[in-house]
Amino acid sequence: MTFRTLHRFTFAFALLTLLAVGASAQDKMNKMDGMNKMSSAKPTVAIIRADWCGACQKLEPTMMKLMEEYGDRLNFVVLDVSNDEKTAASAATARKLGLAKFFDANKKKTSTVAVFGANNKLLSMTHYSRNKETAFNRETYVRAFDEAIAKG
Known about the structure:
Strand order of the largest sheet: 2-1-3-4
Distance between the termini: 64 Å
Number of domains: 1
Number of strands: 4
Oligomer: single chain
CATH class: Alpha Beta
Largest sheet: 4 strands, mixed
Strand content: 5-15%
Number of helices: 5
CATH topology: Glutaredoxin
Order of helices and strands: HEHEHHEEH
CATH superfamily: Glutaredoxin
C-alpha cells in the first residue's frame, strides 16, 4: 500500500467517523424531543437545527444535557431544517404547536433556541450569529429556562 493510498484511506475513515458521531448526536436529540410529551401547562423550548450547521453541532451537547435536566418542567421541540423533507415535517409540527409564525420567520436561522411561555408568548431567543458571546454558554439557557418556569 502506498503512502498516498494509506492517506486517502485514513482521511475517508476519519470523515465517516465524524459523520457517524454527528448523526448519532442528532438522533439522540430527536429521540429526547419525542420522549417529552407536550404539555400546555409547561413552557416550550423550540430549537431550530440542521445537520450541516456547525453552530448546531456545537450547541447539541449542551441542549441534550439540558433536555435531560429540564425534561419534566419544559416541553422541547426540535425543528430540523436539514433538507426539504425535514423542513416540511418541522413546519407541520410548528403549525400543530401554534409556532408556525415563529418557524416561518426563523427557519433559515439555524442554531436558534427560543423559549415560549403561556399562549406561546416568546420569552427569550438566542441565535449564534446574533449572540456569539452567549450562544453556547450553558448559563444563558439555564437562566432563560428558569425564568420561563418561574413565570409558569
